[in-house]
Each structure stands twice: as structure tokens, then as C-alpha cells.
């Protein structure tokens, strides 16, 4: 398997970039996806945008395995983490190149976290149902309709392609609380001795 790519973390300014469309559907794109998949598996994520590994391309991957929104997967929650770890492998990788939302409807609330903003979570309001157009690794165009957790993850990752992180989706007071907790966690981490 490909080596994992290095995650970048908030407030890295690259997370604010608007990613550029993918124009080359070549072996290097497939290699990038393999590296991203590795990174996502190691970090126990369910979605990853290319910019989170410092590649400003409109590319994202999703793998919710057999989880559905009904199971209320919560990042950081012990029960959810246990369910996730019980899946031996993340087995349902989906790759979205140059994704765009054609239609969005309904509302859903979900406790989100982010591999680029580790350690904090908050309930974010999203659209429940989406119609999405995207290209696959060969450049072929597809359209899908989706809802629930898969729809949430696609919206979260698509935000990354536009320089948006989930705290931006919160009220200003909630955002302030989440980011101040995050800064505190980061400061504590900096004080810890290196593992070598
Ligand atoms: Zn994220």
C-alpha cells in the first residue's frame, strides 16, 4: 500500500486555499488517492480532501464503510470508535474528482470533527439530501443522489476544497468556543515531550 501523506492542521493557511480543478487523470492522480486513503485509514477518518494533505486539487475521498447516519457515528465517541474499529478494513472507498453539488435539500444536524482540527467536535447543520456531479479516476462524469452521513461527509470535504473548515459553519459564539478549546489542546500538545 502507498505511504501515508502528511496531514496539515488548522490554522495552516493552506486550508484556506480554493483548490484547483483536476485536469490530468493520470497515474499520479491514482497514486495521490492511494496515499490519501492510507492517511485516512491511519487517522481513522471517514473522509479526506486533498488539501488536507497539502494538495490544492479538487479531489476528495469518502469511506463510511457500512456506517449509516442512523448509527450516529461520532468522532471521538467511544462507542462510535469501537464500531469503526470493529470494521476490519475501511472497505467502501469512494473517490470524487471535481465534485459539485447540483441540488441540495432538507436539513440534518450531526456532530462533526475534522482530521485537520483534531480533538474538537461540534454539531453542524447541513443539507440532508444532495445531487452531486463528479468525475471518477478515469475522468468519466457521474451523477448521484445521496443522503444522511454520506451527504454530510461530502459537504464537509467539499467545504475544504473551498477553503472552509467546519468551525466556519458554526455560530460565532460556538466557533469561538470550539477554536479556543482547540488552541488549548494544541498548547498542551506542544508542552508534551516528543516521543522521538
Ligand atoms: Zn475536515
How much of the sequence lies in strands comes to: 15-25%
| Biggest sheet descriptor | 5 strands, antiparallel
Number of helices: 4
The CATH homologous superfamily name equals Peptide deformylase
Average pLDDT taken over every residue: 90
Number of strands: 7
Overall shape: it is: globular
Low-confidence stretches: none
Helices and strands, with pairings:
Layout: H1 27-42, E1 47-49, E2 59-62, H2 78-86, E3 94-105, E4 108-112, E5 122-126, E6 129-135, E7 141-147, H3 148-161, H4 172-191
Antiparallel strand pairs: 1-2, 2-3, 3-6, 4-5, 6-7
The structure holds zinc ion.
Zinc ion binds next to helix 3.
Descriptors for this entry?
7 strands, globular, five-stranded antiparallel beta sheet, 196 residues, binds zinc ion, single chain, Peptide Deformylase, two-stranded antiparallel sheet, alpha+beta, 4 helices
Question: Could you characterize what this model shows?
Answer:
The protein is built from four helices and seven strands, in the order H-E-E-H-E-E-E-E-E-H-H. By secondary structure, the protein is α+β, with helices and mostly antiparallel strands. The strands form two sheets. A five-stranded antiparallel β-sheet has the order 1-2-3-6-7. A two-stranded antiparallel ribbon has the order 4-5. The radius of gyration is 16 Å and the shape is globular. Helices cover 30% and strands 22% of the residues. It has helices at 27-42, 78-86, 148-161, 172-191; strands at 47-49, 59-62, 94-105, 108-112, 122-126, 129-135, 141-147. The structure holds zinc ion. Residues 114-116, 156, 160 line the site of zinc ion. Zinc ion binds next to helix 3.
